[in-house]
Amino acid sequence: MSEGSDGLVREPKRDDNGPPGPPRRRRFLNWLLGTGAGALSASVLYPITRFLVPPELEESTTNQVTLPIRARDVAANSGQVFRFGSRPGMLIRTPAGELKAFDGMCTHLDCIVQYRDDISRIWCACHNGHYDLNGTNVQGPPPRPLEEYVVIEQDDQIIVTKDA
Question: Has domain 64-161 been given CATH number 1.10.3290.10?
């Protein structure tokens, strides 16, 4: 407050009609802390979101594969994992000598299965799931049987197909 030439006390004039804002330094620090907190939140939430929402994968359109192994090289009571498009497959020669092929992913949590010759079963190591030699789930948590593929032996080559 200042005293005018006429002796009256007057308030100083303001250029803006509102109350004065916070000092420039405080505004800058508030902006810096706000953007830092936003960046921290984004860097924590982004990986969590990517984990919870997996990317879409295209379904393989492969209906047939010719395996690089020869039919005579597959011993009785043994199994081999092979690639069937984008998924694994399981080729088994049963103790009786018959060749069979199945989808190589467990129907419980999509773990890769393997053949155990000591018990003559297809086994999922993730949760101890067992399938018999027809792909039927017989023990453990798998909810449904394995998808069976058709095996064709042609000139000592093994052709595995989804359709007959």
Answer: no
